[in-house]
Design goal:
Elements lengths: L4 E7 L9 H10 L9 E6 L4 H8 L10 H11 L21 H19 L12 E6 L6 H11 L16 E4 L13 E6 L2 E3 L6 H9 L9 E3 L8 H9 L8 E4 L7 E6 L8 E4 H8 L11 H14 L7 H15 L1 E6 L15 E3 L5 E3 L3 H8 L30 E5 L3 E3 L11 H13 L20 H4 L8 E5 L2
């Protein structure tokens, strides 16, 4: 596998740092994917604004632009992804980390990560001929530019006229005393530090082999694992955008080799979740066809672009013309989600489950073992916790006009706890909690998938409080210990 697939994990400053719990949980989840730790794994650590760091360090601790009280309020309302008008607040998603404390915590996080990789401290242990390297950028690049940097580091520049300076990288490897740069591979997995595998994946190698086949090279460039956003995807897209994807799916039932059996469903939106792609898909298209700026996220660039491109085809009246145009346009993006069929009978399971779970790194903080916190949230779920599989779904049915599935879930991660905006803790008053809830509701622009009304999410749906006939689905607990 090390000759076929390279794994690139993106990490950057988070409110929970210097804790390494999140990335440790990610590496533990890699054990669910057969052969993944046989690959060369690169942890790509974005840098930070050194000028801002020096400016902050030259000031007194009390003169930070935002008071401690203001910072505390921002964290409680925005779950650590502060977005206010004061200059010294943090925006973790787009890398504008201006707080000297946040930068110091991130540097400490990287220092701990170096030591664990050097010492091969579990779970940072590769298998067979695999390796784990930490690649640190010397300044803040942002998510998209950081990927451009690592491909250039591999010797695969994304443009002949690439004038950006990607020097100043240094690596640490766990496989030997001499850190060496691995060779590029035909395929790459772009992984996010807060996207975890929560179900076993025994078909990684067969998927790579299938992508190597000549018949898939014209349409399959990027492959996603099922997540909440892609469950019941055909029905969801048909209801939301009036696009029927059923005719554009690729079923694969290889009885001759029994490698993989399942269906490839085309995506209409370019998701930034963990995925596998052809190496040249990134170096000749994704990082080239659109100018990148510092702080850009590829999902924000390519997601709306792909959706708009496909939606424009709805103006075609002729169905044959539409089908042909859809295949042609979608082949430019070539992104699919794969659902595995039953090994026993080759039939797809109607009750689909995630393979990936997103635990936002901006919505967790360092804390005690998470089981105790989850017991506080839902003690009744303790009896049904299972270390090896997801919990069964609640019989709750969402509103008929909704586009997704009613679901409440959280993850048990040692050393982390989920920030609950609806509950008070420490010195936070119940009044402040209510205000935070109102602010969170106010930012929600879509329809509640329980009652169908705009202005609030399912979590804050007033119908649950107004009527005893409604019953919230039980909290699902995903065990990442």
């Amino acid at each position: 596998m090390e000759h076929l697939l390279t794994v690139i994990i993106q990490t950057s400053p988070l409110p929970l740092h210097p804790s390494t719990s999140l990335i440790e949980a990610l590496f533990r989840s890699f054990d669910r994917v057969s052969g993944l730790k046989d690959c060369n794994i690169i942890i790509l650590a974005d840098g930070y604004d050194r000028d801002a760091m020096e400016e902050e360090e030259s000031k007194l601790d009390g003169d930070l632009g935002c008071s401690n009280r203001h910072i505390e309020r921002c964290h409680s309302v925005k779950f650590g992804d502060i977005d206010c008008t004061k200059k010294k607040c943090n925006n973790y998603k787009h890398g504008r980390t201006l707080s000297s404390e946040s930068i110091r915590n991130y540097r400490l996080y990287l220092s701990q990560l170096r030591e664990m990789i050097r010492n091969r401290t579990p779970p940072f242990c590769s298998t067979n001929n695999g390796s784990i390297l930490l690649l640190e950028l010397n300044e803040r690049f942002g998510s998209a530019n950081a990927l451009e940097a690592v491909f250039s580091w591999f010797g695969s520049p994304t443009s002949d006229n690439n004038s950006q300076d990607f020097s100043g990288l240094y690596t640490i490897t766990s496989s030997s005393a001499h850190s060496s740069k691995p060779k590029s591979t035909p395929y790459v997995m772009i992984a996010q530090h807060d996207n975890f595998f929560v179900r076993d994946v025994g078909y990684l190698s067969p998927l790579i082999q299938y992508m190597q086949r000549i018949e898939s090279t014209s349409w399959l460039h990027c492959l996603h694992f099922p997540s909440t956003a892609t469950l019941n995807y055909i029905q969801k897209i048909k209801r939301r955008y009036q696009l029927d994807l059923a005719n554009f799916c690729h079923e694969h039932n290889d009885n001759a080799t029994s490698l993989i059996r399942g269906v490839f469903i085309p995506l209409v939106f370019w998701y930034g979740r963990t995925h596998i792609a052809r190496w040249e898909y990134y170096t000749k298209q994704i990082l080239v066809k659109h100018p990148l700026r510092k702080g850009d996220h590829l999902e924000e660039i390519w997601g709306t672009r792909q959706l708009r491109h496909l939606m424009e085809l709805k103006t075609l009246d002729n169905m044959n013309e539409f089908d042909e145009s859809f295949r042609r346009v979608h082949a430019m993006y070539g992104n699919y989600v794969f659902f595995e069929a039953s090994k026993e009978n080759g039939i797809l399971d109607d009750n689909q489950h995630e393979v990936l779970y997103h635990l936002s790194g901006r919505k967790v903080r360092a804390g005690a073992l998470c089981q105790s916190n989850i017991a506080h949230l839902s003690s009744s779920m303790e009896k049904t916790m299972n270390r090896n599989c997801l919990q069964k779904r609640s019989p709750f049915h969402p509103h008929g006009g909704s586009f997704t599935i009613a679901r409440r879930a959280t993850a048990a991660v040692p050393g982390l706890e989920v920030i609950d905006a609806t509950s008070s803790s420490g010195n936070t008053s119940s009044t402040r909690s209510e205000n935070n809830t109102q602010l969170l509701q106010g930012r929600f622009k879509q329809r509640c998938f329980h009652c169908g009304e705009k202005g609030h999410s399912f979590k804050f749906c007033p119908a649950f409080a107004e009527s005893e006939s409604y019953e919230k689905p039980e909290l699902e607990i995903l065990d990442l210990t």
